[in-house]
User: What shape does this take?
Amino acid sequence: MMHCTMEDLGALRAGEASVWARRHITTCAQCQAELELLYQRVAQLKALPALRPPRDRWPVVKAALRAERSRRRRSWGAWTGSLALAATIAAVLLMRPTKTNTAYAELSQAKQQSATLEDSLKQVDTDGRVLSGHAAAAVADLEDRISVLDGTLAQQAESAQDAELVKLWQERVGLMRELVNVHVTRARYVGL
Amino acid sequence: MTVALAVPDVIVARAQAGDEAALETLYRAFETPVYNLVRRILRRPEDAEDVLQETFLEVVRSIKQYRGEGYLWGWIRRIATTKALMRIRRESVRETESMDEEPGKPGMHVGANLDLERAMERLSETSRAVVWLHDVEGFTHEEIAEQMGKTVSFSKSQLARAHARLRRMLDEGAHT
Assistant: This one.
């Protein structure tokens, strides 16, 4: 007499068995017992105790995370350094008499404000502070938006009209001010 | 082992914002389920530890990309499974169908009083992976095939073969 293979039993368990297997299992005690054993084995597998990691790997993960963040900040710093250079070049270009005096003044003022805020940010030890979830989310959002804006500024430094550049730089000043405020407010709050 | 973990949304949001304490909370919540999963698949404990670490490195790097679709455990489990299976593929040279081929290994000779856990240890890593993912974690054969880069038939036949072997080993163990 032909009996169910393990494939047949698995298919019966999954409700995908052939007509023959479905009929056979109703009359064959041996195959019924095998199917029952299969169910029991699976139940026993699910009931096996959880194996716990022998060592705590979080310190390694945390160290790697911090190293990556530090690398990102350094590259961001280098990027803002390039921007400062670009700003200097732009300032020289702005000295050209083809530009309007109002635009020079506004652009120079925005860049000066942006540089001052960069300095203020450096005074705050942003790496060593513990931020609340809300503050950390705000900082991450502001840093992302500044990064995007810097990319736009780098692309448009040569081609944009003065009025557009002024608007972008003023936007950057606004974001930088918010970023500094988040860090300074947090420092006051925790008394650091 | 059934995992029914729910992490508050606020912790996930803080982790996505890069908050280290929240990331550690996630690690503490999922380190055992992840280790258990990969240890059940991989034969060597040190490999399972490495995959645990790789999994959480990926989690902390990519948590921003988790959009809340499905359970967080499902998302983390997928990362862990992928990494464990990658390790099997990478080191397939040591993949053997049975540890019977390792002479002199204490406690591994046929006829030992095997329980299910020890019988599982004697399966190849591929078979262990299929059994564990299908029978315990609830993956479908389609999902296993996709993760392993194999066919659905491969997954089904591996499962059947693995159960036939388990059945034999447990039967032999019961009669010695």
Q: What stands out?
A: The two ends of chain A are 83 Å apart (CA to CA). The longest helix of chain A spans residues 58-94. Helices of chain A lie at 6-14, 19-27, 29-46, 58-94, 101-123, 133-156, 162-190.
